[in-house]
Amino acid sequence: MVNHEAAEAMIELYCKALKMPTLRKGFRQILRDSQANGYSMVEFLGSCLAHEIEGRHQSAMATKMKLAKFPTVKTLDSFDFDAVPTLDKTKILALADGGFVREHENLVLLGNSGLGKTHLAIGLGVRAIQAGYRVRFATVPTLVQELIQAEREFRLPKLLKSWEKVDLLIADELGYVSLGPGGPLLFQLFAQRYEKSSLIITSNLEFSRWAEVFGDVTMTAALLDRLTHHVHTFVLTGQSYRLKQSKTRSGVTKMADPGACSDQPAPSETGRI
Asked: Is the overall model pTM greater than 0.85, yes or no?
């Protein structure tokens, strides 16, 4: 008769051989809970398998979140919709199930800095990962530099091919700097995703001014023709969240210190992107 300790050691070996690390760590607690609640052998086995499946799901989520390269994790739940009253909350939340990614649709968020475009983009990206999609975040300047470097090293086709594996590409901050020689390369990256995968683009410029960034009217028109064929566009207006918070804190400082100089710099702010 195999004793209890030997049986546990054998279970550990079996879990290792079957590549079930979560169950290997947790089967003892599951056994204690099952015994305490009078579970049958079938219920105990079901609990073991459910535990392993949940562990694999969490591991896959963690891997996808890491590969997404978000600068920071933001959620839709933490977004202050009241601060941007012109934004249709219902329509944003309707996109949170990842259906637009499944349908290879695009999303464009337009508006001045500090209104939460990046926060929304990341929040939707997180939801897309939870729905099972592969997501990648990058600022447009970073994307352009990556593309230019790949072209110089004669590996641009390989890089573009690698992006085909990404279900949702979040391109942040289009419009803050001119793309120069990177304009045609970014156009190529965006164009190859047409009706194959999805884009979220955030920009401080309205569509009519994108030619200023890409440096070519014809190319920009061709891009917008593809991009806006299946697109959800949101225009965010209002006062910058960071500026508003900075003014609020600055006001508090002045009230606390009447002798403070009126031109004293506002404290650093880490509000919504």
From this structure: no
